[in-house]
Amino acid sequence: MLYDCRRRLLKELGLNLPNDAFELLFVFQQECVTNGENEFNDVYLVTTLAPIPLEAFSLQEYEVSFVKYISVQEYKHLLLNGDPQYVPYDFHGQYGQLFDIITKRYQDNVEEKSLILQNKLNRYASVSLDAELTGLTEEDKEVLLLIIQAARLMDDIFYNQVWYSNESLREWLNQHSQLSEFDMIKWKYYLINKSPWSSLDEDEAFLTTADSAVKLLPEATRKVAGWKGLEYKAAFPIVKPPGASFYPPDMDKMEFELWVKGLSDDEKNDAIGFFSVIRRHSDSYSSNITVSSNPTTSDLYIIPFSQEYFSFLAKAAELLHKAGDLTTSPSLKRLLHSKVDAFLSNNYYDSDIAWMELDSKLDVTIGPYETYEDVLFGYKAAFEAFIGIQDDKATAQLQFFGDHLKDLEQNLPMDEMYKSEDVTFAPIRIIQLVYNSGDVKGPQILAFNLPNDERIVKDRGTSMVMLKNVSEAKFKLILQPIADLCIAKEQQELVDFDSFFTHTICHECCHGIGPHTITLPSGQKSTVRLELQELHTALEEAKADIVGLWALNFLISKNLLPKTLVKSIYVSFLASCFRTVRFGLKESHGKGQALQFNWLLEKGAYVLHPDDTFSVDFDKIEGAVEGLSREILTIQAKGDKDSAQKLLEKYGQMTQPLNNALGKLTNVEVPIDIAPNFPVVTKLQHIQQSNNCCCVS
Ligand SMILES: [Zn+2]
Q1: What spacing in Å lies between the alpha carbon of 391 and ligand 1's midpoint?
Q2: Distance CA 371, CA 575 (A)
Q3: Which of 77, 303, 562, 606 could make an S-S bridge to 601, C-beta 3.0–4.6 Å?
Q4: pLDDT band (50, 70, 90) for residue 695
Q5: CA of 215 to the centre of ligand 1 (A)
Q6: 319 Cα: distance to centroid of ligand 1 (angstroms)
Q7: Cβ contacts of residue 283 below 8 Å, gap of 6+?
């Protein structure tokens, strides 16, 4: 449609506009009467700018009867009065919506818009994410700086991947950010979302076309003396393009599928693979549309990432190569060098293996990974980077839980017959995040599991990386204020990060124990996931939480962990429940948390006070935790979907006490997430500069 729109504008009006000058506002379903050769239709070109001189158009006079300027208000008025020249559009019906959309997208109420955007921004608490560099050698620091420079390029690629005009919008918002307070808010909020669509609001556009870039385009129309050419806005779609910039903006699912059908097997794999984009031949001549050709299914073609993003990837490869030469860690050296090859060859297999085997003080994840940005098919990977330093204390804790997993499995509160000899100790790395870029926008993630390449997952599974300082920042800025509101006064001081994070690590380890492969009553082998289907993830998350609590108490009772820990673990867990449930019960973690909260409240392990705060009853909590652990583990061991359904229906609900607590959080405006900045980058640059100075003198 975009292609056709541009082609017709050029053909009929002599107006040549690039893709990013167009914004799809409205599709009007209209009965079209075609009498032989002639189709009649009014074409509206909505601009926010001063009229274009009529002589700039080169009209095809046979087909275009006349061109006139008319303001939206005037046009609306004519329709309302039923002017025969403009009917039969039904202003009070569907067509009238067009005016609402235009008004909303082009209104210029700065004060009101500014306030709305400030409120959206306030949901993020800004925070400096610092990491301890003292454990690093000078050489490590130099390596780190090179890697961070490469990571920055992932941001550039990602902006491009989200939407084809994102780069120019970013530039424009940056340049204008100092003009007014509103421009600064726009810039800040844009940087959090890395696009004009707001992550916390289901990707609703938070800018309007009136807020976006204006460009000058001398070649857009015929030259007119004294007129500089056409200015246009880099318009963006109200609805975030589901295919991001991985596919042509006007391609739909059907066109893609038809095209793929006709491809050879190898081409097909590339077309639906992680590491390529799909483009149109006809778009390649974007500044010079070939008027005669029509887009056909063979109009699409594949470009590998290594080619599409070559300018960025070649630079990143150079930096990583230097870093790889410098580092003395063999596993990091291998990762960096294999990543260089991957960026240039588009083959990421070896670098993914090297990433799985990484064991170094510096932890590096860089490249195309998650496919969430491709909502159309989920095929294409977005570039990201997570650079961190291994956290020694947490790594030791992880080892501790790993060493006791077998013992925990044998003592789980469930029938002996369900217990297994094997436990799975999934590889986990816990780091202090130093820098992230690319595919991380809106809410900050706390952990990730990679790689996504099925060949590797099948043979070797995945590795998890947990970001400890991100967790700590969220704890201080979100969980602590939640605790102040929702936890009874006398227990507030028991809420602390160390206990909270100890439970988080234990949660991850507990995914590895309990039933996974099971034997059904019929004797048939199956898995919990297969049997519980859509209920599995919520129940599995609840299991990891509640069995995690049980496990910590078990280890404390064996004197393997300090006794002082026990109370703060229970209270910190209670506080964290409100944070998770806040994201809604559709999500597995939220549903799983609601299930635990309501169960523990019913059993008297949580106590609701008249001032709507909660506390833990330390006499009852141990039994209640064990009871729920047994309930969930048994359902999983039996693959009993009916009981899972009943349990979730009864307890996985938004109950009145939960609702009251959440209401308090909204009233006091506790932030929903954090917006980090990374001071370590400047710190490292200082170190490098002072080093350079020494060399010079
Ligand atoms: Zn989990």
Answers
A1: 20
A2: 32
A3: 606
A4: very low
A5: 48
A6: 35
A7: 3, 19, 248
Decide: helix, strand or coil at residue 567. helix
Examine residue 88 and say whether the peptide bond preceding it is cis (omega within 30 degrees of 0): yes
The whole-number average pLDDT for the span 507-532 is 90
Q: Quick one: pLDDT at residue 94? A: 77
Please check the confidence at residue 267 and state whether its pLDDT lies above 50.
Answer: yes
Distances (CA, A) of 300 to 198, 266, 270, 557: 30, 16, 13, 64
Domains of the chain: 2-103 (no CATH), 120-203+239-285+300-390+428-461 (3.30.540.30), 406-422+464-678 (no CATH)
Q: How far is the CA of 427 from the centre of ligand 1 (A)?
A: 14
Ligand 1 centroid–CA 76 distance in Å is: 55
Going from the Cα of 526 to the center of ligand 1, the distance in angstroms, rounded, reads 21
Listed range (164-178, 288-302, 569-583) with the worst mean pLDDT: 288-302
Instruction: With a cut of 70, say whether residue 284 has pLDDT above it.
Output: no
Give the burial class of 298: count Cβ atoms within 10 A of its Cβ; 0-12 exposed, 13-18 middle, 19 or more buried.
exposed
Mean pLDDT of 529-541: 91
**What is the distance in A from the centroid of ligand 1 to the CA of 399?**
18
pLDDT for position 35:
46
Query: Distance between CA 52 and CA 21 in Å, rounded?
Result: 15
* Cα angle for residues 228, 231, 233 (degrees, 5° grid): 170
For all residues of the chain together, what is the average pLDDT?
88
Give the position of tokens 């509160």: 413
Give the Å distance between the CA of 673 and the centre of ligand 1: 19
> 406 Cβ partners below 8 Å, 6+ apart?
423
Give the distance (Å) from ligand 1 centre to CA of residue 413. 19
First to last CA, the chain: 63
- Measured over the CA atoms of residue 498, residue 476, residue 506 and residue 554, the dihedral's sign is positive
Separation of CA 546 and ligand 1 centre (Å): 11
Say whether the peptide bond before residue 84 is cis (omega within 30 degrees of 0).
Answer: no
Q: Decide if pLDDT at 438 tops 90.
A: yes
**Among the listed residues 352, 223, 194, 175, the one whose alpha carbon sits nearest the alpha carbon of residue 275:** 352
Asked whether residue 288 carries a pLDDT value surpassing 60, the answer given is no
Q: pTM for this one?
A: 0.87
Task: Give the CA angle between residues 556, 448, 276 to the nearest 5°.
Answer: 165
pLDDT score at 292: 44
- 509 CA to middle of ligand 1, Å? 9
Distance CA 441, CA 454 (A): 25
| Separation of CA 511 and ligand 1 centre (Å) | 7
For the segment 309-330, what is each residue's pLDDT rounded down to a tens digit?
999 999 999 999 999 999 999 9
| Degrees to nearest 5, angle at CA 188 with 184 and 189 | 115
- Is residue 87 very low, low, confident or very high in pLDDT (cuts 50, 70, 90)? low
Buried b (16+ CB within 10 A) or exposed e, 385-418: bbbbbbbeebeebbebbbebbeebbeebbbeeeb
How many Å lie between the centroid of ligand 1 and the Cα of residue 590?
Answer: 11
Residue 426: burial class (beta carbons within 10 Å; 0-12, 13-18, 19+): middle
Is the sign of the CA dihedral 142, 147, 150, 151 positive or negative? negative
If DSSP states are collapsed to H, E and C, what string results for 345-367? Answer: HCCCHHHHHHHHCCCCCEEEEEE
CA of 434 to the centre of ligand 1 (A): 24
